[in-house]
Amino acid sequence: MGDRSSRTRLMIRILSIIFAALSLFWFPWPLTIALIILAAAYEPIAATGLGILADVLYFAHGSYAFPYMTLIGLIITIAAIFVRKFVEARIIQG
To answer: Pick from 83, 6, 11, 3: which is nearest to 41 by CA?
Structure first.
């Protein structure tokens, strides 16, 4: 059995992704973006997955077919990876 802090971190990662996914159905887009950023802080690739999910859910036939939410998810994922690497480097050095 793992220690308590690793189980807590895993639970936070899973719940943040679940809340961000559910926010696609219930909350306005600014709050959804904020929750996706929060989920990306724990699991960076989640932003891309949630962006794809948003584009699939809200695709309208005949509209401009550019996947905006996927693009936003990729930008958030790249930013989260860089921030995460920067923070890890600072914690290890200092």
So the answer is: 83
Using left for φ > 0, alpha for ψ between -120 and 50, and beta otherwise, residue 3 falls in beta
Tokens of 1: 């059995």
What percent of the chain stands above pLDDT 90?
49
pLDDT in tens, 51-65: 999 988 888 777 767
Q: Are 74 and 44 in contact (CB under 8 A)?
A: no
29: amino acid identity, one letter: W
**Could you tell me if 77 and 69 are in contact, meaning their C-beta atoms sit under 8 angstroms apart?**
no
Low-confidence residues in the chain, pLDDT < 70 = 1-2, 64, 90-94
3-class state of residue 31 by DSSP: helix
Structure tokens at 24: 């696609």
Q: Report the alpha-carbon distance of residue 86 to residue 72 in Å, rounded.
A: 21
Helix (H) or strand (E) holding 43: none
